[in-house]
Amino acid sequence: MSSDAKPSLRRRLFEILEIGAIDDRRSLWFNRFMVALILLNVVAVVFETVEAVYRQYEPWFWAFEIITVAIFTIEYVTRVWVSPEHVRYPRNKPLQARLRYMVSPYALIDLAAILPFFLSLYVDLRVLRVFRLLRLLKLVRYSPALNTLANVIYSERRALLGAGVIMLGLIVFSAAIIFYIERGHNETAFSSIPQAMWWSLATLTTVGYGDMIPATAAGKVFGGVLMIFGLAMYALPVGIIASGFASEIHRRDFVVSQEMLRRVPLFEDLDMASLTRISSLLRSRIFSPGDVLARQGDHADHMVFVLSGTLEANLNGTVRELTPGEFFGEIALLNESRWYMTVTAATRVQVMLLDTADLYHLISENPVIGDHLMEHAATRLDEAVAELGIIDEDQANRVRESIRASIARVP
Q1: Which CATH architecture has domain 9-142?
Q2: Regarding the domain with residue range 258-408, which homologous superfamily does it belong to in the CATH classification?
Q3: pLDDT above 50 for 2
Q4: What is the DSSP annotation of 275-306?
Q5: What average pLDDT does range 212-240 have in this prediction?
Q6: How do residues 73-97 score in pLDDT, each as one tens digit?
Q7: Is it the case that residue 3 has pLDDT exceeding 80?
Q8: Does domain 158-236 fall into CATH 1.20.1420.30?
């Protein structure tokens, strides 16, 4: 399909619901509306527990619940319908794609958000109202920060598991020690190791409920030492998550999905494994209008891919626009030279940056990308000679040979 072709209804709904580019106003307003609706639902669930308020406004609560469930149900059904547009699912098998999407974590959260309402129609259990708080989990879909946190927890899962095992071992070990220290005392509350584990947990977390207190001097000294250990031990998972979160935020301003990469023609024919690898190499950024992404004459150290918004490239007074799907910087990087133009953000833009070393890794792993870059660079050099007149044919040929040699050196 050409870049000017109008997307199908399913594709357009998929872009609004799943991609959420910052230059797509419908997607932006939809995301804001859904976040507001989710937060209002949490407020409603909280105030429904106040009997006086609930009795006075019960019809309004009920009407709001019906409207909310209707919206969430339409959203869920629509997401299932557009799921074959996901690059991770087989597009030639819509039924299989939809079934795989329905068991994905996000789809299960969406289902959990509406299921309590339908169950309450057949089972009169007010406790089901509490499960409506699961709708708060839907915020993960609409919040890049929460999405990033979830990614950090997943990526650091082994370190967190190790910290959890250490803490569990410390709880059991300290419970056994306090049990043997205190067991000979007549007034002891530490009658078994399982009971002592409650004291260990409360002491290590420095909560100290006071329902179990060592009666011996040795037990009190050990309790003090355990508190100090607790400060260090429970700081481990917090430090792991904080470090991972800071690193992820520093690396990218927003999450680059495989669907976003598909919007760049250079990547549209790659498989999911290649897209996953490329997304790990890219650094994503958001720029405001007027920000300079490249300045003519400065050293070039990265390529830029436009995801959304518009850039303006100034080549010796000739200005052209760079729109979503376009990229620049391959000539400067492969020629090991400087920026030959100044590029600024005309609107708020989402871009992806690819460093020089990562570009060569990418070409090494995907030689087809190197061929595409060579073709693209040749086209731009022809344009620079014929249309812009900023270099002559001899200069263009020297640059072509330099780029060809750079690609040939890639192992």
Answers
A1: Up-down Bundle (1.20)
A2: Jelly Rolls (2.60.120.10)
A3: no
A4: HHHHHHH-EEEEE-TT-EEE-TTSBP-EEEEE
A5: 80
A6: 998 999 988 888 776 666 667 888 8
A7: no
A8: no
